[in-house]
Amino acid sequence: MSSVDPQPKTPRKGRWAIWTAALLILLGGGTYLLSQRSTDSGAAKAAKPRGKNAKGGGGAIPVSIEKVRQGNMGVYISALGTVTPVYTATITSRVAGQLMEVHYREGQMVHKGDLLAVIDPRPYQAAYTQAQGQLQRDQALLSNAKIDLERYRSALAQHAIPEQTMATQQAAVNQYEGTTKLDEGNADAAKVNLDYSRITAPIDGRIGLRPLDPGNIVQANGTAPLLSITQLQPITVIFTMAEDYIYDVVTQLRAGHKLQVDAYDRDNQTHLAQGMLMTLDNQIDTTTGTVRVRASFANADWRLFPNEFVNARLLVKTLMAANIIPTAAIQRNNDVSFVYVVDPAKSTVLARNINVATTDGLAAAVTGVAPGETVVTDGFDKLQDNVKVVARKDRGATANPAGSPAGNP
Prior knowledge:
Layout: H1 12-47, E1 61-67, E2 69-85, E3 88-91, E4 97-102, E5 109-110, E6 115-119, H2 122-157, H3 163-196, E7 198-200, E8 205-207, E9 217-218, E10 227-230, E11 235-242, H4 246-254, E12 260-264, E13 271-280, E14 290-297, E15 309-326, E16 331-332, E17 337-343, E18 348-359, E19 363-367, E20 374-378, E21 389-391, E22 400-401
Parallel strand pairs: 1-21
Antiparallel strand pairs: 1-20, 2-11, 2-15, 3-10, 4-6, 4-9, 5-8, 6-7, 8-10, 11-14, 12-13, 12-15, 13-14, 15-19, 16-17, 17-18, 17-20, 18-19, 21-22
């Protein structure tokens, strides 16, 4: 029998070579990773500043600042108001007839007494003429009766006529006098109707749009007006004021002070006119707790228009030598209002409670700070007592410590 030779086996020396190569590869990779980690750690340590006061303000919070200034500031009451004319006349015809003439243009400014329109006057002229004729006839009868009365008195004195005849004549004179007065009244009424056929302006003001054209028949005291006139100079603004301010306002008025009122547009951005407070209403609206107030404006430039919606600002009083800060500097919590005041020596901040006397939206008059002190106006996110801050400067200028001069903060 023949025998088969077994497969050749791998020598032990070749196996040891493979294991040695794999181990060397693992050691090399581990050494590389450790070296990279050490390099990153060293770079991070090198990038970290050595201390809080390192050059460049490391650790200080950038904020916007502004100094407390001293000045006068008004205490205002702001409210919504409506421009209301002092006088508005809606004119209708007092007599019926055809509209013959129109003597105005739409939107024209007219003065009291100006002729505006003419209603056909001929029927009223005829009635007036008739009334005058009747008056003259009865005046002649009265004059003749008075002459007879004087004659009867002379005859009675000579006992030529009975006393009854003279008494009858006296009654006739009285009757003609009554008739004459009635005729005078009829003539005056006819004259009034004739005058009503000429429509004149009862006030100074601006005429609105014309509803009727010449040729139309108008009715006496009809519901459709011939025209309307609205006075524009002066004009008033009516607005509401909370009842809490009534005492301050009434006190000023009783002292003879004129309270200034400014009118702004609907967006409360454009100043329209300046006027004076006229008066308050005689009672408070219990449903809203407000009182109506009327202010008068000369309206020389026609900026105020009837029924226009405006924002009114009433100056109640002026705070003299008040400490004024931007309203952006005021912070509030559930209990108090406070600001962050900058210590110029340490460039740190400290919260300080304040009382707000009044504000106009951009600035506020407060107590609790002194003129010249510096307050933070922006950058409050990480602020707390004794935290270092650095003042921001516009246009990329180098930041200075908040306590050091920084131009016009």
